[in-house]
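Request: Could I get any protein with tokenized structure?
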Amino acid sequence: MLGCTYGTMFRVTVGGGSYQEGLTVHLQGVPPGLHITEEEIYRDLLLRKPGQGELASPRRELDIPVIYSGVNAADSMPGFHNKGHTNGTPFVVLIPNLDRHFEHIDEYQRTNRTPRPGHASYASYQKYGQWDDAIGAGFFSGRYTATLVAAGTVAKRILRQHGIRLCAYVKEAAGVRAPEMPLETIFEKVEAFRAMRRDCDPVHTLVYKGGRITPEMRFLEKMAVLSELEREVPEISASGFEEEEAGEKYGVHPRVNCPDLAAADEMNRRIIEIRDEGDSSGGVVEIIATGLPAGVGEPVFRKLDGELGRMMSIGAVKAVEIGAGVAVKDMTGSESNDQMRAEGGKVKFLSNNAGGITGGLTTGQPVVVRLVVKPTPTIAKEQLTIDKVTLRNATLAAVTRRDPTIVARAWPVSEAFMAIILLDQYAQHLGYRALRKPIEGSE
């Protein structure tokens, strides 16, 4: 399968499938000397995993990552303290699938001849024929996005050490749009949502706080624990949290990561209302990055905004907006242009309609991107389809596990993918500037 690798300086390759043994993430370009733990990766994975309330699929994946290679197994010599730190070799993470049950496989087998409208199941069968990995939609399931989140955790850590930070949130869901808010308020509310989900997550409490898996354990020891946890999945998943109490404690909505609480509450209400009608809904995720210097990006074929357009590789994303996006069609040039002034030896922009990018290069302003997320294709309503083997007409009503909306779980994936792109471009930018220094010094 081609198309599973992205990047030049920070290179990400992913593999696996919804009902295969698990998923894999292979990273090249991770610098040596980082101390990245499985718990740190899990703290991002828990934000997108299923089985967490009414806005997610009931599939109960624990999404516990295992770092397989790329770190030192022990201090390399007396006086060195580099155990558990990255060593510059490929950094590989495994995410085993722990919630694969025969009754669900049987459901897929009985419905796989009749592809879901709006889903890749028809096109993938045309491409791969009878060998298509159609159980749970295989590599075309939203399950694969766990690999992007894991890679994005590493990318965000590296960017953060260079003063670059990102956050994503639900801007719009089921037709309800959040109002504009101050940038710092958005960052604070998203961080509070992360803290709530982490502190209330039963897997985080059991596995990491409880010491079931520790960095000192060998790979096979971790596998033995995962085998135990696989049998405990129903019990672990049943231990939820008091949503209303948690939301009040952290000052966030317990289900929807939207900084405006009134909008989040209305989003939740509409999503459930549409779900109860047997249907699904879409929305918009906004991602913001700050701290990027001016000039990051490459002209023509690798413009940064063009690279960010690659976020349409997230299965449910149907459009990418940067800055004012499609609204510029209704603006005049004087309204669209981000005019500039010089203040105290620094450049100040009077607006950010360009979303922090002009000519494919960053301007030093916040980079603002919005992703349009389509409704979940799998719905309870009967739909017209075909038998993809006999090419006879048929009807289909979903019997498989599904999300009432994707947007509520898409924001951590979007944030991670943007981090991957920005790190790759930033690394190229630093390399290019390093080549300039001897030349400039000789002038």
Residues 322 and 369 are 5 Å apart (CA to CA).
